[in-house]
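so i finally got all the pieces together for this one. its two components total, 940 residues if u count the protein bits. some of the lines might not be protein, just check the labels. i wanna see the whole assembly predicted at once instead of chain by chain like last time, that was a mess tbh
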Amino acid sequence: MALFAALILTLLPVAAVTDTDQAVADVRSRAEQVHQIIAEALQRGRAMERLTDLCTRAPHRLAGSPGYMAAAEWGRQIMEEDGFDNVRFEWTDAPRWERGSVGRVALVEPASHQAELPMLALGGTIATPEHGLTAEVVVVDSLAEAAELGVSARGKIVLFNGPLDRARVDTFSAYGGAVGQRVGGAQAAAKVGAVAALVRSMTTRIDDVPHTGGMRYAADVPKIPTAAISTLAAEKIAALIAAGEKVVLHFNQNCRTMPDAPNPNVVGDWLGHERPDEIIVVGGHLDCWDVGQGAHDDGGGCCQALEAVRLLKTLGLHPRRTLRVVLFANEENGLAGGRAYVAHHEDELDKHVLALESDSGVFTPRGFTTDANPAARAILDAIAELLAHAGAGRMTTGHGGADVGPLAASGTVLVGYDPDPHRYFDLHHSARDTLAAVNEREINLGAGVIAALIWIVADLEQTLPRNPGG
Amino acid sequence: MALFAALILTLLPVAAVTDTDQAVADVRSRAEQVHQIIAEALQRGRAMERLTDLCTRAPHRLAGSPGYMAAAEWGRQIMEEDGFDNVRFEWTDAPRWERGSVGRVALVEPASHQAELPMLALGGTIATPEHGLTAEVVVVDSLAEAAELGVSARGKIVLFNGPLDRARVDTFSAYGGAVGQRVGGAQAAAKVGAVAALVRSMTTRIDDVPHTGGMRYAADVPKIPTAAISTLAAEKIAALIAAGEKVVLHFNQNCRTMPDAPNPNVVGDWLGHERPDEIIVVGGHLDCWDVGQGAHDDGGGCCQALEAVRLLKTLGLHPRRTLRVVLFANEENGLAGGRAYVAHHEDELDKHVLALESDSGVFTPRGFTTDANPAARAILDAIAELLAHAGAGRMTTGHGGADVGPLAASGTVLVGYDPDPHRYFDLHHSARDTLAAVNEREINLGAGVIAALIWIVADLEQTLPRNPGG
């Protein structure tokens, strides 16, 4: 008996039950609710139906466009239909850039290889001169290589041809390793005297579909026009140059930037029945590029956020705390919506418990990423365990999403929906991002696991511990 | 010190290093090889290219058809091209059923709802009378309900309308819960005097795409014609009857069964450099239904098996044991290929270490299923840990696959490729099962994790322990 007691004292940690232990036990008591939510999502989920409606009514939703306003009104009406509280527009100024009617990159030399090359102007770029420009191409694989070109780039078109690393399982890290060329290529090329910058499309596919996306000018660097060309087109140019050919392109586009336009975030609450001042945000961004339908990026994320709350309402799972859906404006070319949310809610930021964004495509869920502190992370890990049967048991350290990013400074715990990554960069920012690329079970299951996570966080007896620095 | 010793004796298991421990350590030493295989698969994998070739040359590959022979010769040529040893056809007799030129289900009463209903005859069914049959419909949700119809079914068409349970995360278990109606519906309906059996398509979607599949007659029960109709058509009929309407259908098809035809399994080895008599089988089935292109079911699985070995050859990873690719004949309507493999290799079945099949679609890998004994399972679990970074870290208890199933009795450990299940029954056995539904990264990553698993099992110093009963 003495030996047994000694064993216990030696081997067990101090048995005091902490707040975290209690919260984890609270989470674990909710397995049946989680199964119920996920079954409802798969059986009768409406995320695909809503996304079909959105993408049909407003396929092009770039900031400042009439399409964005159509989408915002659509979102407001859905929130009303679903019985949200305090449905409102929260306004911000958003940039207004238009692609224009002309977009052309043509290979003119060597004469034996003349061809039109699939292209899309990058969001924010200036136009070329009115009838286009014609110049020799120089190819680099990175911003650093462009800087090294020196005077040899003067008067030329710089083609940034650094590929996404297809060998990586995580396509997002492959994108992260290459996208600097798209964002900063025009600056880097202008610094060495180039007249234009082209960039290989940011996709894991080798094909002829061009992918657009945002770019930035710097105040102290001349602005030069820039566009993406397809991966096959980029590889063709690079191969010709590697074979010793002089390659000359004609480049013509008439994009323009107009004065900012007022655009709203669309916000609706489901007030908590016990602690309505404590807020859990769930959202996506409602704007999208002006090609395809923004189905995965990010109409699908918006519909999952709406659907997550609708599922809980349907099941009568009314949480203690307030659930707030935010459909953010202007993620793609400015992030005005994410910043405006923080400005509009400055007086209640310390009551923001968690903000979850779905903006990585609406493919089969694998889990979530989060920046949570250790105590909150233990609770989120326990929630992930309950989602493992749905294939969504992975909780990893990472970001929440671009739109909820500005909430980090307030101490709000951020969570990002983390789906299967393999198809996303096939279609991201391209004409391929359409309803046809979305699967009903996948988007609905994703909405279900999001609903389960926000339900538990919003209904736990203990409030999820906020991050330091808030 | 005495207490400490007592603690150790009390708490630790005997520390002898077992064969299994050594094998697990051997597995764990191979993490770098696994990363190398998976990176090669994603970067330069050829599974999609090969599948495109197969599905373009031989989209319809039903047992006994010219298309099957085209596919078999394609497989033989690929094995030769990739430098396999002992490439050969291993012959079996396979059933030869043809859909025919006529296939029609039409709603004729109530007159206000007349419509053509999307349908596909089930594989193996007899024809209707030459000009079709016209009869009232009675609806049931299961085989048991059909048996209870008694004389009320006499002269009628029985519609089996039991749905797949969409609420289940695992679509394969949903399919398993419903498919008995397709396989046994004609028998059950004939027993109560019906003139035909129709079955709701075995899909998780509610749409107008019919899904075919195998069915069986019994020797002592009259044969009646049978077909699948779309889920929407089945629900429409059921709704009309539930509303009190009498529903009459016209049903016409001219399918026929001809004498068996010789069909080969296509077999090729990569002989092991140290123990060539020990064999690891990897395969899929080369036959498919005569609609769509059999891209996921199971051209994709065949191409993953071929690709897994090609990857290892490309990387110079030549294992101790023999890797054998088998492209099986006649899975869809008979399993003659799986049975013939066992008959052809009777004298070396005790040297079969493991047989892996990919026949659940070529979607993103989640892991594998297996029937392995505990010692073998510990080794497979350690392999799964190495695959977790690729999202394929799940090893669960289950079957290997229909074609490798007959090997179970020999004690061969069976493993099944276990991909994401959500899209499979959208397209299974339907016109939707085409190349357009296959993603290049997904099929290649699957080939990579299969390659990693068979590489390790084939190259371990210790032979994977066989199952009892062999």
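The interface with chain A takes residues 3, 6-7, 10-11, 38-40, 42-43, 166-169, 171, 204-205, 364, 366, 389-391, 420, 422-423, 426, 439-442, 445 of chain B (CB under 8 Å).
Chain B has a mean pLDDT of 96.
anyway lmk what u think
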